[in-house]
Amino acid sequence: MENFREFRCGPDPFGETWLVWFKWLQTAISIRHSDTIDVKFILTPATEADASAPPQEKTIALPLPVVFQTAKDLGVSVTDPWCARLAKRHLEYLITSGEDMEKLIVAPSPVQLRKYAEDEKGREKEEVRTRRRGAA
């Protein structure tokens, strides 16, 4: 299964690769009165030359109505790991494109979120197939 807790991502538009750590996931209604699932990551430059740079925090805000509708449409359960993997996919997009990197909280569009979810479902099916072939 894909690791959303600790991973490398990049390069960004400036050639930097980032070390990323999952910090937490929670329903944002409790922290900022938002109808989202917030997933926070900590980013640090992967190169030793930039190792002294302060870490950056990025929160990916997954809109709950879109998350629930997408899960229903695809026939998957809304779980913390599933949401964290969707958030990871959006963070990877942000880093590699450079889009919205100046923002602390970023929400994927409904179209982006659905694409991530479809890709995730396909990746999970392929992993199950691969494991079954290996066990046979």
Question: Which helices and strands, and how do they pair?
Answer:
Elements: E1 6-9, E2 18-27, H1 29-32, E3 36-45, E4 56-63, H2 64-74, H3 80-97, E5 105-106, H4 110-135
Helix pairs in contact: 2-4, 3-4
Describe the structure.
By secondary structure, the chain is of the alpha+beta class. The protein has one domain. The chain has a 5-stranded mixed sheet with strand order 1-2-3-4-5. A hairpin with an 8-residue loop joins strand 1 and strand 2. The radius of gyration is 16 Å and the shape is globular. The model has no long low-confidence stretch (mean pLDDT 89).
- Strand portion, in percent? 25-35%
| Helix share bin | 40-55%
For the report, how would you describe the main beta sheet? 5 strands, mixed
Distance between the termini: 19 Å
Order of SSEs: EEHEEHHEH
Please count the helical segments: 4
**Which consecutive residue ranges, at least 5 long each, have pLDDT under 50?**
none
